[in-house]
Amino acid sequence: MPTLSKARMLTTSVIGMIITIGIARFAYTPMIPEMMEEIGLSESVAGYLAAANYAGYLSGALLISFISSLKLKQILFRSGLCGAVITTLLMAFTQNEIIWYLLRFISGLSSSAGVLLGAGLLMHWLMKHKHQAELGIFFSGLGLGIVITALIAELIKDHFSWDQQWLIYGSVGLVLTLPVWRWFPDQAGDAIRPATNTPAQSVSGLFMPVLQTAYFCAGVGYVITATFLVAIAESSDTLRGQGWLIWLVVGLACAPACGLWDRFARVYGQWLALFFAYVLNSLSILLLMISQELSVTLLSAVIYGGSFIGIVSMTLSMVGRLYPHNPSRPMSRLTFSYGLAQMIAPAIVGYLAEMNGNYYSGLLMTLLVMTAGIIALLWAMQLSKTTNKHCNQSTTLKGTP
Asked: What is d(CA 137, CA 256) in angstroms, rounded to the nearest whole number?
């Protein structure tokens, strides 16, 4: 294959993220109210389907943590692209809940391949070609995926049935798969050092478990809004019919956020950037609790979209630089925690919403978990500073542990 430019590699990776997360995962969010209205999908089943999706994501993260072969990673990455499209299309052909659970589980596997293997392969390519090892642009694909699903949702919701809408989302994913399949480079023959769990810099043995705890809490903060935001809007008299707009605003805020967080971290340090991202994510949840006015909800959507993606991008970039010889492995370990939160939390909040008739108690639970996450993050920050005195002299980002 001819030498690939950095711009094309980044573009290809972003499109892969749009397919495996934007389509395979986030098409479900605007589909929840459609399926509730047309076929009587309950809040609890909606939550269980989201949990099944994240169980797949969690399983994928666990499996990827044991893989070091670049060739196998590339095979599984391409398999993830196919799985994302096929499972989205097949949602249209059944109303059997068991089959839905299976499809959403496999879709979650595809998403983990797109995120973790895509990020790891991209980071390997960037470091091999001596580019800065940042993932901000890569994770913008998540925001772009939200924008695409929001726009599609508004265009098709009044003209197509729920099953036809699933087919449309799947068809968009199929079209987007073609350039990724053609352009993504073959790195299987690259000579790399043997995989190791030894970090490039010294950190406390407690550092990773504490960071995993903080990231688990961030997973709860992310998934509840990601799953139920449109449903929350459509259940409100003041916001009914505006769910697509609110979801669109999340994507528009998300798309450029990673690049902005990267710039902020270079100047003020990654730990401070992560702290602010956690606080802002908590604020977005609080705003959803205190008001159902459109202006407040849109503000919450902007803050949420801009904060959760920064947490993901900066955290995974951090461990990718700490473990440069096999970045997918520590990324998978963290994502296991994130995925565990995403599997548990939607089921709980969906159950609470069905029992109470609203989402307030679920949002309150989420806010309390995010508060615990901030405390864990501060602990991880202290562990890093205590055991790694030279962390502020990182060659890539000021403040990297």
From this structure: 8
Q: Which amino acid is at 37?
A: E
Region of 78 please: left (phi>0), alpha (psi -120 to 50) or beta. alpha
Q: What is the pLDDT of residues 197-212, one digit of tens each?
A: 555 455 557 888 999 9
User: When comparing pLDDT for 193 and 69, which is higher?
Assistant: 69
The CB-side HSE value for 363 (13 A sphere, CA atoms) comes to 21
Cβ count within 10 A of residue 96: 10
Q: Write the DSSP assignment of 355-393 as a string of letters.
A: HHSSSHHHHHHHHHHHHHHHHHHHHHHHHHHHH-TTGGG
The string of pLDDT tens digits covering residues 353-376 is 888 887 888 889 999 999 999 999
Q: Are the CB atoms for 370 and 211 separated by under 8 Å?
A: no
Q: Is the predicted pLDDT of residue 279 greater than 70, yes or no?
A: yes
Chain centroid to Cα 307, Å, comes to: 12
The pTM assigned to this predicted structure is 0.75
Report residue 139: phi and psi, to 5°: -75, -10
CA distances from 51 to 73, 101, 231, 343, 372 (A): 25, 9, 16, 4, 22
> Residue 17: enclosing H or E segment and its boundaries?
helix 6-17
Indicate the burial class of 395 (C-beta count within 10 angstroms; 0-12, 13-18, 19 or more): exposed
DSSP, residue by residue, 36-102: HHHH---HHHHHHHHHHHHHHHHHHHHHHTT---HHHHHHHHHHHHHHHHHHHHHGGG---HHHHHH
Cα distance between residue 240 and residue 36, in whole Å: 14
CA 142, 145, 149, 150 torsion: positive or negative? positive
CB 339 within 8 A of CB 223: no
Look at the block and give the residue holding tokens 């929840």: 32
Question: Given the structure tokens 């699933």, which residue do they identify?
Answer: 166
**185, 333 in Cβ contact below 8 A?**
no
